[in-house]
Amino acid sequence: MIKMLHLTFVLLAFASFIGRVLLPMMRPDLVKHKAFKIAPHVIDTLLLLSGITLVVQGSWLSGNYGWIIAKIIALLIYIGLGVLVMRSEGQTRWLAFAGAIACFIYIGIVAVSKNPFFFL
Ligand code: HEM
Known about the structure:
Blueprint: H1 2-26, H2 28-31, H3 34-57, H4 66-87, H5 90-113
């Protein structure tokens, strides 16, 4: 049940991140809505809370927890790059955007494979 919620928030967080970057360019009128500013923070918080609940529920920290640490580190990098995307312009903004998407995909693959070094 919590895992289903977690996966739902993963999809919503991904969609809201892309939306926050693309909508201001495509539909600037929508961006003025209060919901547009608040929703991403609510979704990101629920994603984090559902992840923490899964860690506790599955006692993941008492066994092989390297992948959880990798997920959290990649999540921090994703947040940092996300802030850079919102605050910068031009090439820096798009490089940060690509990096953030790569982090998100990495987090997803690590979650499924339970291996931070799945690419080796
Ligand atoms: C961008 C953020 C995140 C993404 C893309 C993501 C992605 C995923 C995915 C795809 C799964 C399903 C894995 C499977 O069914 O095999 C999953 C499960 C899980 N995630 Fe996340 N997650 C994120 C954030 C977090 C955070 C912040 C935590 C912990 C603090 C966390 C902890 C977990 C745990 C413990 C599971 C359950 C693993 C299992 O039962 O097999 N996740 N996550």
